[in-house]
Amino acid sequence: MKQRVISGTVIAAVIVGFGLIGGIPLAALMMVLSMIGFKELGLAAGFWDSTDNKLWGNLLSGIGLLFTAVYYIGLVALQSRWGTQPDQMVFKSDFFTMIVVVITFLAMMTVYVLTFPKFRSEQVMACFFSFFYAPVLLSFVYRARMLPYGIYMYALIFVCSSICDTCALAAGVMFGKHKMAPVLSPKKTIEGAVGGVIGTAVFSLLLSFLLGVRNPEANFRIQFVIIGICGSFVGMIGDLAASAIKRNHGVKDYGSLIPGHGGIMDRVDSILFTAPLIYILGVFLLGTAGL
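RESULT FIELD:
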C-alpha cells in the first residue's frame, strides 16, 4: 500500500509538471511511455519474444518502435510549424496520423511477407493493433495539450480518467449493488459508474469556471460538462478493455515498472480512450479548429 501511495504521488507530480510545461518535453514523455506500452502489449500478445534480449525485440516490433519515434517527431515538427494556426495544425496532424498508420501497416506486412514463415498472421495483427492502441491513442494527450486552451483539455483527460475512477470507487463502496461487468471486473458496479459520471461532470464544470476566470471570452460550461460525461463513459470502457486483453492472454499485470501499480498499460488504460475523444470533442465543441 505504501509503495502504491508513493508511486501515485510521483505519477501525479509528473502529470501536473509535464502538463504545465507541454511542448517537446511532454511529447518526449508520451513517446517513451508509448514505446514501453507497445512493448508491454507485445509481451502479452506474443509478438515480442521475451527471450530475445534485443532492445527492439525483433524486426516486426522494431517497425512499431521506429514509426512511434517518427510519429512523435513529426507531430512536434507540425506543432512548431503550424502552432499559431490551430485549424491548419489539426488538419495537417490528422492527415499525418493517417499516413503514419497506413505506412506502418504496410511496413509490418512487408516484414511478414519477406520473412515468412518467421511470423504468424496473428502476431502481425497484434503488433499493428498494439501500435495503434498505445502510441497512436496516447499521442492525443500531447495533441490535446497543444490545442488552444490546451492545458484545460489536458486536465479534462485526467478528470475523465483519474477523478472519474476515484468518484466511481467511492460511490461503489457506498451504494454499489448491481455488477457492471462481473466477469471482467467483479468490483465495478452500475451505481459506482453513475457516481463516476456525476463526479466527472461536477469537476468538469468547475474546470470550465476556472477557464472562464482566466479567459473571460471562453464560456464553455455546457461543452465541458458534455465532454466530461462522454469522457467518463469511454474511460470506463478503456479500463475494462485493458482488463479484457489481460484476461484473454492470461496475465495479471502488463508489467512491473510502477511499484504497486503494474506496468504503463495498467495506468493509462482509461487515458487511451479519453484522450482521443476529448481531443475530438474539443475541436468540434469548442470551435478549436474553426470547424
